[in-house]
Amino acid sequence: MRWAAMLRGINLGKRQLKSAELKAAVEGLGFTDVKTLLASGNVVFTADETDASALERKLHDALFKATGLKSEIFVRSPEEMKAVAAADPFPDATAERPSFVVVSFHRKPVDSAAVASLAASHDGPERMHAEGRELYIDFPDGQGRSTLHPAMSKAKLDPVNTARNWNTVLKIRDAL
Asked: What per-residue string of b and e applies to 86-102 under the rule 16 or more CB within 10 Å gives b?
């Protein structure tokens, strides 16, 4: 079965990981057709494993063993990545400024009530939409100037996640 894995916080500050190191760690598990995407901790591969949670644990352990790096890993199937793209709640933004729309991947379903509460209390221009285990965020003025991130840390959202901009989401989907 084909899979995509997205690592959290790779190549930010001191958390450096070369694509070749990531590829070698994944191949070391016996997985095949391994391809890394961009330099932000994205990899697609084929594995006999059918349990995404088990894959996340195996990848985490293999990465730590090979590089000493600990990173949260989020695995999705081709069908799940297609569904993420199809559920696009902000088609105007993804068409006009795809690098300003971010999908945050979580392990558990995103709390819609917490997202609604955050949206009601935040006065910025950002839009948010929870769909299953993903949180879609439109940052019309970019993330750098946004005040949403500090507000999100106070909200009751699961802090264990990783985010990819819309361009990257589509590249991962297409690579599967």
From this structure: eebbbeebbeebbebbb
- Tell me the backbone φ, ψ of residue 145, rounded to 5 degrees: -100, 0
Whole-number pLDDT of residue 156: 76
Taking residues 41-58, what's their average pLDDT?
A: 95
For 137-158, give one letter per residue: b (16+ CB within 10 A) or e.
Answer: bbbeeeeeebebeebbeebebe
Taking only the tens place, the pLDDT of each residue in 92-126 is: 999 999 999 999 999 999 999 999 999 888 989 99
Reported as half-sphere exposure (CB side, CA atoms, 13 A), residue 111 has a value of 11
**Binning pLDDT at 50, 70 and 90, where does residue 11 land?**
low
Tell me whether residue 107 is exposed, middle or buried, using C-beta atoms within 10 angstroms of its C-beta: 0 to 12, 13 to 18, 19 or more. middle
Rg (CA), the chain: 16
Other CB atoms within 10 A of residue 1 CB: 12
- 11 sits in the region (left: phi over 0; alpha: psi -120 to 50; else beta) called left
CATH class label, 2-76: alpha beta
Structural tokens at position 173: 């989907």
In 57-148, beta strands by DSSP E: 73-76, 101-106, 127-131, 134-138
- The per-type count for the chain, helices as H runs and strands as E runs, is 7, 8
